[in-house]
Amino acid sequence: MEHKNEQPNEAQGHHISSYKEHFSTLAALLLLTVLTVAVSVFGADLRSLSVATALLIATIKALVVAYYFMHLKYEHKLYRWLLLVVVLLFVLFLVVTSIEYLNR
Amino acid sequence: MTTATTDLNFFQVKRGLFSWIFSIDHKRIGLLYLYSLMTFFLVGVTLGVLMRLELLNPGKDIMEAQTYNQVFTLHGVIMIFLFIIPSIPAVFGNFFLPIMLGTDDVSFPRLNLLSWWIYIIGSIMALSTLVFGDGPADTGWTFYVPFSVNTTTNVTMSVLAAFVLGFSSILTGLNFIVTIHRLRAPGMSFMKMPLFAWSLYATSWIQLLATPIIGITLMMIVAERFFGVGLFDPSIGGDPILYQHLFWIYSHPAVYIMALPAFGIISELLPTFSQRTIFGYTAIAFSSLAIAFVGYFVWGHHMFTSGMSGTGRIVFSIMTFLVAIPTAIKVFNWVATLYKGSINVQPPLLYALAFIFLFSIGGLSGLVLGALATDIHLHDTYFVVGHFHYVMFGGTGFAFFGALHYWFPKIWGKMYNITVANIAFVIFFIGFNVLYFPMLVVGLMGMPRRYYDYLPEFHIPNMISTFGSWILVTGLLLMLGNLVAGLFNGKKTGRNPWNSISLEWQTPSPPPLANFDKLPELPEGGPYNYKND
Hints:
- The complex is a heterodimer of chains A (104) and B (533).
- Chain A is mostly helical and 104 residues long.
- Helices cover 78% and strands 0% of the residues of chain A.
- Chain A has one domain (2-74).
- By secondary structure, chain B is mainly α.
- Chain B has one domain: Cytochrome c oxidase-like, subunit I domain (Cytochrome C Oxidase, Chain A, Up-down Bundle).
- Chain B has helices at 2-7, 17-21, 26-54, 65-84, 87-101, 109-128, 147-150, 155-182, 195-227, 240-274, 281-294, 310-338, 347-370, 372-378, 382-412, 418-444, 459-489; strands at 414-415, 491-492.
């Protein structure tokens, strides 16, 4: 029965993730959350880099969610390119704003 | 049964209010947008006329300073978020994109209906500020901090309304991108696509990628107002200029959400009414993408006097001048299209020509504001108000009304009175210039914007401007009255009254539910091959 359900989905290109993958992703996200808290509590030495570190960890978490929970890993390459374009655009916004801010 | 259904046009298939407000037919949704947009537009016009009446003489004429602040804010919110951002894509994009692509609907018809409902909910929220609490926001449509955080007027509801309206915009953009990628007729490659579709494609990407930024930014205002998070308040570590960055990262590309579809309309009108192949198809198509891309990186030109860094100002000024290149490519190509054409002067062409003239004044005055030195003098003066009305109203507004006159016979299968339309156009055009050109002059003289009062030396230009608003409204009412009269009493038209070769003119007027009664034939040699070059 389970197999029958899977067939049409596979035929349409949908991937069904295993429990193992779901829980591994959840564990990775929880670990990264712990890391974020740890950095903010114990990482006072990072000073101006503390925001950059928090953003970096948040970006990794977002990518993990997109790749596994949102099945980007199993989709057509085009979608990864689209995500890359959007992320690059966002980075450019940050860079241009930062250039202005740091030169004030 | 099937044959009987195909003989009916999309108006006749179903009747009754519910058949409209729950319709998933892209044509009906386009018209739902048209009726609601025009209603809000007339509210915005009324507020604008009231503002001009207040400015007829120095001192108080008809309203208090605080009321004036609220009126210009609501005028801006309505005209920007409720009218001009959705205008061409939501009305003509919804109605004509699938037909021009040779398909029967957009990719996600239910999402399309949802976007209209979200638009209505957002609009009601925006207008509800009139009756609840301390009245509409008095911040200007830009909601600049720190004032928007401190004022007691209904800022929260206004920004929530803009937030909700953003979802409608995103859904429409998403729908168009997927439709253009997936539903083009067999044989219609991207380079054989009508330029209106190209312009909607570029617009949709901006809607999809830039709108979430304004959503988050507006939510930050709400967070500041309720929780004092300290994002923008310097006394608790915030940065008020950061708000301006975030706001304009969306709102400048939003200018291209408003302008690009208008460019697409002009690229449709000129070949039809000059019976000539569009000059520089590829250049026009790619200049839309170039404007969309470069337009993302010019937002800082709204902030030259905000206290931002000198380096930042220079970078943003250079980028601003770069946008003029793809825009000028379009203007020169349009003019070249007319050259040696068989010009057929009809109301839609008049609007297209007016667009080129008015948009050029708007664009060139924009360069004056994009230059660092001159902007210091002109920032926050009436020159800016004149500039953006020339771009937005003279540009997008005229293209919108040009499109309405162009596709009117296709949508309703009837023709309005051409002579009255021409007269209305002339009055409208004169009124527009009498209304807005004095603003450029009085701005150069140094009159600041957003005050209900002014010095006596600014009296005459303000008086002329207010007279202009009356002329403009006369032209507008005559134009709309003529169109409404055409709906009821207009002569029936055939499939193709303008002798165009674009796909939408192959189908009956009004089109059937499934858009085509026979398989549409793509014109050989591209969508503008008029074969008389």
